[in-house]
Write a structure and sequence with these properties.
By secondary structure, the protein is of the alpha/beta class. It has 13 helices and 7 strands. The radius of gyration is 26 Å and the shape is globular.
Amino acid sequence: MNISTIGLDLAKNVFQVHGADVSGTPVLRMKLRRDHVLKFFAKQPPCLVAMEACGGAHYWGREIGKLGHQVRLIPPAYVKPFVKRQKNDASDAEAICEAVQRPTMRFVNVKSEERQASIAAFRVRDLLVRQRTQAINALRGHVTEYGIVVPQGPTHIPRLLEWIESAENGLPDAARLALGILIETLRRLEDQIKHLGTEIVRRAREDAEARRLATVPGVGAITATALIALAPEASTFKKGRDFAAWVGLTPLQHSTGGKQKLGATSKMGDRTLRRLLIIGASSVVKQALRKGCQDQSWLGRMLARKPPMLVIFALANKMARTIWALMARGGIYQAPTAAV
């Protein structure tokens, strides 16, 4: 069999293989147990191996790549149009094999173990932050039943904890016990978030590229490290606009007949990076509204004629383009000078 392309449908235990020759004609269909996958590819001559970019794909991409094969990871959404009628493992593997042969197909770079470790740090931190928010909301909700209303925001949390832990608040013993457990959980989450944040900042200080990205206004150590860990290589995109579109900071298009119709922000791409860029842009806009900025600057002109929320998203888009330029061409951020 002269196999040039293999579509591999990943699974927990049973993997499906679909092989095709140079002309695209199917020449192999078979199932593989998990412990036989690497043995199978070790016997195959070097060929193109395609998989969906799903759980475990980067691990298998690294291991199969070590055997001399060329590995391509495809976003699952781009594979779905190639599935014919019934969906099963064999159809999925065939669809992957067909999709990878398309000349305009887009791929996901295989991540290294170190990069995946950085991603894990961000994902775990995000999970802990969400759990902290849940604990705070639960505390606020429970004390409302006893006539105590605490405003939203982290600055008011010490006042809330002080009231709950007071011996004179009149809480029943059962409520005091339950809320005490929530407080312990909240403090433990705070320590864990702080510990992970310190580790992320340390990594940012040791990485030269992260230090360069942190020169962009609104980009801190956490955002800079997240960009290095989560964003594809800058060479993947032709220009900054493509990177901003990948992050999900460009409008949705509903254009036809030569008429352009732009909708709301697409919110496609990586949710974590988009959120971090919007948070950074929000801090820059709030500081400009509080302390003022040059009227002739881009931000000053935008704030003069547009609502703040629109300016925040526009600035996040602008930050994404600037970040791509720094990643692709090197250098540090230089603030534009006003024309005289």
